[in-house]
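Convert to structure. Protein one:
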Amino acid sequence: MDDTRDTLAGRMMAASAIVFGGALLIILTAHTFEHIGGYAPCPLCLQERYAYYFGVPAAVVAFLAARAETFGFARLVLLLIAIGFLLNMGLGVYHAGAEWKFWPGPETCAGGFDLTWSQEGIVDTPVIRCDEAAWRFLGLSFAGWNAVVSAALAAIALWGAALRR
C-alpha cells in the first residue's frame, strides 16, 4: 500500500471502528436503561434504535471493506450509515420537540387506545407516551441525546467516506 492508500484505509477503518463502538455503546445503554433501570421505551424510542441496529453490523462491513482495500464499497457503506444516522437525528429532534410540546407527537404515542381491546388488555398494557420525557440529563431527554449522538455518528461516518485523501 502506498501512503495515500494507507491514509484512506486508516481513515475509513478508524471511522468504522468509532461508529461501531459508539453505536454499540448507545444500544447497550438503551437496553440497560430499559431492562435494569425500568425505563420502558415508547414507540418512537423503539424506532430510534433501528439506526443503531443497522449501524453496528454495517460498520463492521465498512471496516472489513476498507481493510481489504475495496474503498468504493467501504465508502458506500459509510454513506449509508451516515444517511441512517442523519434520518435518526431528525427522528430524535421530532421526538424531543414533541416532549417539549413544540409540536404534537404521533397519535399512536399519545396514550390513546383502540376501543376494540379487551378490558384486560387495557388494564395490563402500560401506556408509554412519546410526548413526555421519562428522564433528562443536562436538559436533554433520551430523544434529545439520541439526536446529538446520531449527528456525531453521522459526521464520523461522513469523515470516513470523504473523498479527500
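Protein two, convert as well:
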Amino acid sequence: MTTFEPAVERDYEPAPEEHTRSSRAWKNRLFKGAMLLSMLVAFGTLAVLLVDIVSTGWSALDWKLLSNAPSTQPSEAGAKPAILATLYLGALVLLLAVPIGILTAIYLEEYADRRRWWNRLIEVNIQNLAAVPSIVYGILGLAFIVRGIGIGRVVFAGALILTLVVLPTVVVASREAIRAVPDSIRQGAFALGATKWQVVWRQVLPAAIPGMATGSILALSRAVGETAPLIMVGAVVYVAFNPTLLGEYTALPVQIYNWTKQPDTEFQTLAAAGAIVLLVIVLSMNAVAIVVRNRYRRKW
C-alpha cells in the first residue's frame, strides 16, 4: 500500500541574480534620491537668496537709481555712473577677449603642431589660468598695467584686467566648439580642393559659431560681475560723474559693495536694488547665449 507524505513547506531562497537585481534597484533609487535632494538644496538656496534680494530692494528700484549719481543722501543716491562704467567695461572686454580668444582657439585646434613644446606650453598655461582667482589678476594688473605701463586707474585698465580674467574661458569654450565640428566636414572640403584657410573660414567657423558665441557671452557675464580685480586696479567707491575710457570710474559691483558697508539701512536697500539691476544684466546675457545656441545649433 502506497503512502503519501505531506509536502513540507520550505522557505523560498531567491536566486543570486534576484539579489543582484534588488540591490541594483535599491542603489539606483538611493542615487536618484541623493541627486534630487542636492538639486532641491541648490535651487532652494538660490530661491531664498533671490526672494530676499528682491523683497529688500524692490522699494528702491526706481528711475532715480538708474539716472542719479551716488550721493550721501540715500533718497537722492543712484548708480548711473556705475552702470555706465559696467557697460563700458563689458563692451571693451567683448572687443578684446572674443577676437583674441577665438583666434587662439583656431590656432591651437587647426594649425598648432602638438609635437612642438611651445604649443604644449600654451595649452597647459591656458588650462591653468582658467582656475586662477581673479584677485591674482588684479594684483598683476596693478603692478604691470596701472603702475608698470603707466595707464593709470582708468576704465581701459580695468577692461584689460577683465580681459585677462575671461580670456582662458573664451579660449576653452571656442576650442570645444571647434572640436564638435565633425572631421568629415573638413575632409569633404579638402576633397573638393579647398585650402586650409578656406576650410577653416567657410566650414569650421560657421559650424562652431553657436558654441563660440555661447561661451563668449557667458564669459562676458562673469566679467560684468567681477569686483575684486577692479578694486585692485583703481575702481573707486564714489564717483559722482559719468565715466570716460581714460578717467576715474566705479563699477556696479563695486558700488553695491560700497553701499553694503554703510550703516544706514536705506543704503542697504539701495545695495539690494543695485543687485537686482546687476542680476537683470547678467541674466539677460545668459538668455542671449541660450537663444544664440538654440537658434544656430546644428545637429550632425
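The two ends are 80 Å apart (CA to CA). The chain has a mean pLDDT of 84.
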